[in-house]
Every structure is written in structure tokens, then in C-alpha cells.
């Protein structure tokens, strides 16, 4: 991804997009999101995003379990 962006800095975006089989809009989106980052920083960002989504799922599951327990407790009284 970073390599493609570096390539797009030197060559026309349309040419680079065709060469790599991606859309021009993808390159512009990547440029907006990852400009100024090196490959290690992008990799770390991806890892953090993955971990964040995993934690959000765990939190949602926990909240659901709490709701179920509350409903069970309310029915027993």
C-alpha cells in the first residue's frame, strides 16, 4: 500500500491504478488516510484496528449476557 502511494507520487494516478488493478479512488483514499506513514506504521495501525474491532465484539457479547441475566432475574421475582 505504501509502495503504491509512493509510486503514485511519481507517476500518474490512473496509470498506477491500472498497473496494480485498483481504482483511482482507492489510491486517493489511501493517500488521505496513510499519507506520511511508513510501512511499519501502517502495519501497526492495521493491528490496532483489528484489536479494537475484536474488543468491541467482546464488549457487545458481554453487554448481551448482562441483559439476559437481568431479564432472567426480573422474571424470577
From TrEMBL:
The keyword Protein biosynthesis does not apply. One of its GO terms (biological process) is DNA transposition. InterPro entries: Homeodomain-like_sf, Transposase_8, Transposase_8_domain. One of its GO terms (molecular function) is DNA binding. This is Putative transposase. Residues 38-65 form a coiled coil. Keywords: Coiled coil. SUPFAM superfamilies: Homeodomain-like. The keyword RNA-binding does not apply.
Amino acid at each position: 500500500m505504501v509502495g503504491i502511494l509512493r509510486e503514485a507520487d511519481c507517476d500518474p494516478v490512473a496509470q498506477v491504478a491500472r498497473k496494480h488493478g485498483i481504482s483511482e479512488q482507492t489510491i486517493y483514499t489511501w493517500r488521505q488516510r496513510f499519507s506520511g506513514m511508513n510501512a511499519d506504521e501502517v502495519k501497526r495501525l492495521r493491528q490496532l484496528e483489528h484489536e479494537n474491532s475484536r474488543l468491541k465484539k467482546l464488549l457487545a457479547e458481554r453487554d448481551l449476557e448482562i441483559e439476559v441475566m437481568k431479564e432472567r432475574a426480573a422474571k424470577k421475582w
